[in-house]
DNA sequence: AAAATTAATGTAATCGATTACACAAGTATA
DNA sequence: TATACTTGTGTAATCGATTACATTAATTTT
């Protein structure tokens, strides 16, 4: 009986409990806790100290219901076990946690139905904003309409889609690819293949275009048959390179739009008894940690993911706090950095001379 | 003016709007939507169809406030850019999404203050449960007391701490380590070193104990100087192995409690011009994808992380739905599987004969 | 046909915090 | 001293959904 009583007593303290304790009303307590300037210093102190004594904690659900804000933000990524996305998320967290937001992470595994489902359930969970990297640019856009309708800020990072009024934070994929390809050309490569990917996504289209432009700008012949669309998976990279090596006139370099397929490429090349980088040079994209730790380290393009996440979060904060519904969308483009490693370095850099 | 009006009209439809539309009360609408048996078939249909027509969506915050459930579950991991934790989370999601729960993921980066902070903010966000892998077993347990006080189900996975009444899902680390060590012995290794880790965590203590027992059971000399505590990082593995190789009587095998330090070990061994597995065999732990994809693939212990996540989620569901406050805690232990690869396979298996 | 059930819906309180508006007491101004 | 501000609190509605407890109408039982 006594235990039961104690049990019931464990209910969370509310502002009403505090009000009763200090002999004021809940309204005053609420104002005191929120540092409303209309409250006298004496009352504020009394209330805040009593609140602490009584282990008061604000019921965020009630606040959310009243204010219409949940302080939850949805983040949607294709997958989170790649260092790139994990790092973007870390950047977002670093920026948002100090402001009292929580982050709900969803993975689409590149499936459109999961993407749509995630968006809907995030909206339903009353998130205050959605930061996402889309999986498929061809997906029906009515989900995006419903985000807009609810006036939930939407920010794209890395993989975006052109939607009027929606901000984005991306890297200059064209330039990253251009640099990578130029580097291969400078190493003496003449027939550079490109492992592309779903080009309905801007990132892959731009990597393709940057690659192509570098080839053309340096007077090499652009051969469309050296461009193959594949997936960002080790085994897919292997399969694709197997095909390339069967050509009568095989490539002497591979620029992959993904580190994972670059790794597969390297495995396949070695299996064919060819040397890297002497016979075939390889460059990947994303600077995943393994590229550095391989026995044969892989040249790759760094995308500064943590910074990308932080900036995306900052854009969200700006949009969510702005009272003006007529927001201008921001398009922020970061510059990538080519990290040169074993898999492509044939010529000693002039710097070492 | 008209646009402003349309804008205001965009407010979400509530059960009151539906009630007005069909000429009933909100209570009836609520019941009809929840398939309460007291509602007539005709009304139920009418209400549900009207709801659909009006694009009604339940306000989860209101439901949460009333019911005391947020349908959010917190998941705390040291980091999520390891395949192991990412996969556990995927398993949790697979089990929880269909039940209408959302998952809030927090990372501790192995810092105690972040761990405590995450727990507090999850509790404050009214999560219905916390699934976690602890970072530091020595951390003050008052945070755990506050979880218990709030009657929020807590389930440990992988890295647990002994707390009365708290369930856990782990793997048999002792056995995993025993199998790995036994395998090395069967390959002819005599001086097996162990890259250990913070042994205040049960997982690392048990891997150490399994290793030790296998050594003893097979009549080898147990040499404490071959056990070195390090961190689950590539560079830490390198550093540690550098020390081991300087010994007057260096090891002929390394059993690492982590794939990452195993990778560092391999790099360091190769840098010393030694052959793997001929001179030194290496076995890791966790079966991270890279262990399979390395040029020299790495033998490792698989922990079936997706299953671990699914089971942890199921335990949570059972606890959260149980009305009985006197819950028995469950301790579920999964069996690991040794995956033998290049880094330790000197002797051709008899099966191939 | 009166009494007792059953079925379907309505009334109103509730979850906890916020806030527009009202009001009283104190201070400043004319 | 009467009038006009301040300052600090209280009152009560609100956010949207749920649910114990009426209440009414329809059906069954005796």
What layout of secondary structure does this protein have?
The structure is a homodimer of 353-residue chains.
Chain A: H1 2-9, H2 15-22, H3 26-33, H4 41-53, H5 60-67, E1 72-77, H6 83-96, E2 102-107, H7 112-124, E3 129-132, H8 142-149, E4 154-157, E5 167-171, H9 173-186, E6 192-196, H10 202-217, E7 227-229, H11 234-246, E8 253-256, H12 259-271, E9 281-283, H13 289-293, E10 300-302, H14 305-321, E11 331-334, E12 337-339
Parallel strand pairs in A: 1-2, 1-3, 3-4, 4-5, 5-11, 6-7, 6-8, 8-9
Antiparallel strand pairs in A: 10-12
Helix pairs in contact in A: 2-3, 2-4, 3-4, 6-14, 9-10, 11-12
Chain A binds a DNA duplex (30 and 30 nucleotides) through helix 3 and helix 5.
Description:
- Two copies of one chain form a homodimer.
- Chain A has 353 residues and is of the alpha/beta class.
- The first copy, chain A, folds into three domains: 57 residues, Orthogonal Bundle (434 Repressor (Amino-terminal Domain)); 130 residues, 3-Layer(aba) Sandwich (Rossmann fold); 139 residues, Response regulator (Rossmann fold).
- In chain A, strands 2-1-3-4-5-11 form a six-stranded parallel sheet, with helices on both faces. In chain A, strands 7-6-8-9 form a four-stranded parallel sheet, with helices on both faces.
- In chain A, helix 11 crosses helix 12.
- The longest helix of chain A has 17 residues.
- At the A-B interface, helix 5, helix 6, strand 2, helix 7 and helix 12 of A face helix 5, helix 6, strand 2, helix 7 and helix 12 of B.
- The first copy, chain A, binds a DNA duplex (30 and 30 nucleotides) through helix 3 and helix 5.
